[in-house]
Every structure is written in structure tokens, then in C-alpha cells.
Design a protein that fits this description.
By secondary structure, the protein is of the alpha/beta class. Helices cover 36% and strands 19% of the residues. It has a single domain (3-317), classed as 3-Layer(aba) Sandwich (Rossmann fold), CATH 3.40.50.720. The longest helix is centred in the N-terminal third of the chain and has 21 residues, at 84-104. The structure holds nicotinamide-adenine-dinucleotide.
Length: 340
């Protein structure tokens, strides 16, 4: 079995993916700043944690690594707009450097988790596939597209590069994100009976469960290199291609209390309906549906293991870290605050 380097393995997808890879018999080296906490992954002889910034990697980080799954990024549109320069640095430049170093170090496979948001806005009736023109509307989506364009040409017969354009992810994970559509709708509806919904509800958005993402990544790790090398795959399923208002109604129906829709924001200009025929032709299926995600979030809430706080909102958390870092730097004397 392989040793896999997962950057950003302490994040929402990573804290589900890493234990999943271990159950499949792999060893994992996680490289992460652990911005969301160091204790979200299980203790295991098969998981090595390295606290490092992906902008500072060296060839040694790739010693004995068979494959890289490069999750580390500022992971949504609001963070991308607030930290534009850093999004270019981390999501594009740093991932390009990671892929280049992986190739140099003799790693055999590199998986880039890009985003279906690079389809941006598409006219009603259009169903995009991997050859359709992209239309990235945000810094986050543009940085993903640039990473795709620069990393794909690194592929050759010894270095298999796979690009996965992920749908918006949902479901419970130890680093919980309530800033993702289904998760946020579920939590709002559950906690206050008010389901937050971005106007105007007609926009199309593909969704995919976090465990289906872990399975897709494992699938691409194990697939014959000749079948997947230098290819782009949309990850999701037609069952999970939703218009946002009907999606919200399904979420509301799956919640065991009366729920009202609470509209917010200006009309969302991102709307894309996506084909998953290419990945399905290889035998991969994303099997979970919205009700599965809603139920596990309700269960996690009931069990008291999912608490909404600033860490469950990615942008809020990064803004808080930046704010407190400055405060602490300004006040720190003799290596401490009150305790010196
Ligand atoms: N969640 C989704 O809906 C979705 C959809 C499409 C694509 N993706 C992509 O999947 C990847 C993971 O997303 P996620 O939802 O798990 O996000 P996340 O924010 O939960 O995780 C990102 C992780 O990267 C780490 N990180 C950030 N900058 C770093 C740096 N410079 N050095 C080291 N570590 C750093 C963070 O500490 C965090 O643990 C991202 O690339 C994201 O763009 C996610």
C-alpha cells in the first residue's frame, strides 16, 4: 500500500479523507498549518503530522511519498475575495510549487482538488462537462483555474496528474464547515427554525458528500495511470445537481421541526449545472444524497459534537487569527503576556 502526502489534511475534507485512506491500508503524512486545530485527526501509527506551511516545503517533505493529494488552500470565495493576494500565493503558486517538487522528488501521482466553481455562470439549459468553456467569476475560482493550467502540463509517463473539479461539499466532518450551503442551511434550520438561503434560489449548484469526495480521491489514487493521467474529472452526481430553492425545501423537510426560509444577500451570479458522465464512465459513483448529510449533522448536533463557533466559518476564523496575531505581537513582552 502507498504512503500518501495530504496537504491541508487538518481541514474539512482532510479530517474525513485521512482516516478513510488509513482504513484502506495506506499511510498518510499530513502537512498543514492546523489553523483549525491539531487534535481533529485520530492518533494512529499510520498518520504522521507535520506542522508546516505549504509555501515553505522542501524536497525532504516528499521522502518516501508515493502520491500527493494537495488540499491546502484558502478554501472559499469569501476568503478568496478578502485575502486576494494570499489566495493567489497559496492556492495557485504554492500548489504549483508543491506539484513541481513532488515530480522532482520522484512521487508517482499528484491529485489537485480544484472546484466546479470555475464554471461560474452558465446559461439556463447548459450542462457543462470537462471540455466546456470555464467562466471563473471570483479570485478563488480564478486561482483554481490557473493552478489547473500550470499543473496539468507537468504530467508525463512517470508523473500522473489528476484534476478533480469538486462540487460544493456537504456532510459532517471533524473540522466542521457551516459556511457550506447544505451544512449552513441544516444548522440554521435546526438551531433556530430559520434556514438561510442566498437569493434568488434559481441558481444551479452541484453538491457532493464529503465521504464521496474521499472515495473519489481514493478511486483516483488506485486507478490505472493510463486511464486518468493528465485528465480532469467533475466530482459529484446528477442526483446532487440542485437548484438552490428546491434544495432548501428538501433540507427543510428533513429537519424535525417547523422551518422558515430566511433570504439573504444579492442574487448569486454563480449558476452551473454539471455533467458527471466522465468520472461515472470509469465506474465511480457518488451515492449519498442531501438527506444523508442533513441527518448526520442533526445527529452530530444532538450528540453535542458539533458546535457553531468562529472556526466553523472559514473567513471569520482567518480574520480572527489575523486580528489576534497583531494584538499579541503588539503586547507580548519577555515571551509572554501576564505570565512572563
Ligand atoms: N469544501 C468544498 O466544498 C470544496 C469544493 C471544491 C474544492 N475544494 C477544495 O478542497 C480543498 C480543501 O477544502 P476544505 O473544505 O477541506 O477546506 P478547509 O479550509 O477546511 O481546509 C484547508 C486546510 O488547509 C490548511 N492550510 C491553509 N493554508 C495553508 C498553508 N499555507 N500551509 C499549510 N496548510 C494550510 C488549513 O489549516 C486547513 O486545515 C481546498 O483546496 C478547496 O479549495 C473544497
Amino acid at each position: 500500500m502507498s504512503t500518501i502526502l495530504v496537504t491541508g489534511g487538518g481541514g474539512y475534507i482532510g479530517t474525513t479523507l485521512v482516516p478513510f485512506l488509513v482504513t484502506k491500508g495506506h499511510s498518510v503524512r499530513v502537512i498543514d498549518r492546523f489553523f483549525f486545530g491539531k487534535n481533529l485527526l485520530p492518533d494512529s501509527d499510520n498518520i504522521e503530522l507535520v506542522q508546516e506551511d505549504t509555501r515553505k516545503l522542501t524536497l525532504e517533505h516528499f521522502d518516501n511519498i508515493d502520491a500527493v493529494i494537495d488540499l491546502a488552500a484558502l478554501s472559499n470565495d469569501p476568503s478568496g475575495e478578502h485575502f486576494q493576494e494570499l489566495t493567489w500565493d497559496i492556492n495557485y503558486k504554492s500548489r504549483y510549487a508543491t506539484a513541481t517538487m513532488a515530480k522532482q522528488a520522484g512521487v508517482k501521482r499528484y491529485i489537485l482538488p480544484s472546484s466546479a466553481s470555475i464554471y461560474g455562470f452558465q446559461e439556463t439549459g447548459v450542462i457543462v462537462n470537462e471540455t466546456s468553456p470555464t467562466n471563473p467569476l471570483t479570485t478563488y475560482a480564478k486561482a483554481n483555474e490557473k493552478a489547473e493550467h500550470s499543473i496539468l502540463p507537468l504530467s508525463d509517463e512517470n508523473f500522473c496528474v489528476v484534476i478533480l473539479r469538486l462540487s460544493t461539499v456537504y456532510g459532517y466532518s471533524p473540522r466542521m464547515r457551516l459556511d457550506l450551503a447544505i451544512n449552513g442551511m441544516t444548522y440554521g434550520a435546526l438551531s433556530s427554525g430559520k434556514l438561510p438561503l442566498m437569493r434568488d434560489g434559481t441558481q444551479w449548484r452541484p453538491m457532493v458528500h464529503v465521504l464521496d469526495v474521499a472515495e473519489a480521491m481514493h478511486f483516483m489514487m488506485m486507478a490505472n495511470a493510463d486511464t486518468v493521467n493528465a485528465k480532469i474529472f467533475n466530482v459529484g452526481s446528477d442526483n446532487n445537481n440542485y437548484q438552490i430553492l428546491p434544495l432548501a425545501e428538501r433540507v427543510a423537510q428533513a429537519i424535525p421541526r417547523t422551518v422558515d426560509i430566511e433570504w439573504y444577500g444579492d442574487p448569486d451570479h454563480r449558476s452551473y449545472r454539471v455533467s458527471f458522465a466522465k468520472i461515472e464512465a470509469l465506474g465511480y459513483r457518488a451515492t449519498r444524497i442531501v438527506e444523508d448529510g442533513v441527518k448526520e449533522i442533526c445527529d452530530a448536533n444532538e450528540a453535542g459534537i458539533m458546535i457553531k463557533n468562529s472556526k466553523t466559518n472559514t473567513l471569520q476564523h482567518y480574520q480572527d487569527l489575523e486580528y489576534w496575531y497583531k494584538v499579541i505581537k503588539d503586547l507580548e513582552l519577555h515571551g509572554g503576556m501576564l505570565r512572563i
